[in-house]
Amino acid sequence: MKLLVTGGTVFASRYTAEYFRDRGHDVYTLNRGSRPQPEGVTLIKGDRHDCRELLRAHSFDAVLDITAYNAEDVNGLLDGLGDFGSYILISSSAVYPETAPQPFSESEECGPNIIWGSYGTDKIAAEKALHERVPEAYILRPPYLCGRMNNLYREAFVFECAEKGLPFYVPEDGTLPLQFFDIGDMCRFMEILLEKKPEQRIYNVGNSSTVTAEEWVLECYSVLGKVPEIKYVKADFPQRSYFPFHPYAYRLDVSAMEALMPETLPFREGLVSSYEWYKDHRDCIVRKPLLDYIENNLR
Question: Of the residues 12, 49, 90, 288, which has the maximum number of CB atoms within 10 A of its CB?
Fold first, then answer.
């Protein structure tokens, strides 16, 4: 297939471009050309909000929109596209109100989420804009994405603490549930959608089970053959100042995804792969001053 991947230079979009390239597809990426590009794909250099002259000459079997955050992003790209077949938008679980019954199902009405704020409402607007113009488009709603090429200071933060032999600080009693989805599984599911073209158009995607914050940390440390000293932090300390995730417990119902893709990558296997990538790409990580906060306030 001839595929257009938006972005293509960091984490989810880069992994997607390389995943489909490695499976023999003719992959094009759309980005401003300001970062190193993946090999073996064709760059269309430009802005998705002003791409009429860049894209009209092309026809694509599918558009994989990894980088749309709001309605303007979606409309800008659609305004520029010529002919295309399937369209897959990566949205977010942030579209569900935190007050809705859990686990969230795809039939749940979307609405503002106090934890995610404008990020969630912008994603809702992106979904709406897409389905108004392309009703047959697919929308995926993942929880926290993880895996190779993850440049966010999540697994990388724990790996860094493990390498330094530091204790690890978890919120309250360490039981905050976290739901993840490996980027490789997300690409595999997009591949299934393009092949099978199911009637359902919106899918929650993610691992079927959650892990606690403490379990996540223990697994990350175990990849390095280490066991951390766990420190429990009271709720009166701002959680995002010392821990990579919001104080927000949620879970997605991913049964519709599992009907098409019953198996996902074992969690530990994904962490091993993440660490192998991290060791050679430390400079790619977008670090935050979590260790500084811990040093100045928790030790």
Answer: 90
At 182-226, the pLDDT tens digits run: 999 999 999 999 999 999 999 999 999 999 999 999 999 999 999
Q: What is the mean pLDDT of residues 233-256?
A: 97
CATH number, residue 113:
3.40.50.720
Cβ neighbours of 82 (radius 10 Å): 11
Q: Coil, strand or helix: which one is 108?
A: coil
Q: What length does the chain have? A: 299
Question: Per-residue pLDDT averaged across 93-101, rounded?
Answer: 97
Task: Provide the 10 A C-beta neighbour count for residue 212.
Answer: 16
Look at residue 253 and tell me if it is in a domain. no
Same domain for 30 and 166, yes or no, is no
User: Distance of CA 89 to CAs 182, 188, 283, Å?
Assistant: 17, 15, 29
Q: Is the separation of the CB atoms in 64 and 7 below 8 Å? A: no
Give the angle subtended at the CA of 248 by the CAs of 155 and 245, to the nearest 5°: 20
Range of the domain at 86: 2-146+181-204
Q: Which helix (H) or strand (E) holds 195?
A: helix 183-196
CA angle 61, 184, 212 (to 5 degrees): 140
**% of the chain beyond a pLDDT of 90:** 99
What is the band of 299 on the pLDDT scale with cuts at 50, 70, 90?
Answer: confident
Asked if 267 and 219 count as a contact pair (C-beta separation under 8 A), the reply is yes
Q: For 10-37, b where at least 16 C-beta lie within 10 A, e where not — what string?
A: bbbbbbbbbbbbeeebebbbbbeeeeeb
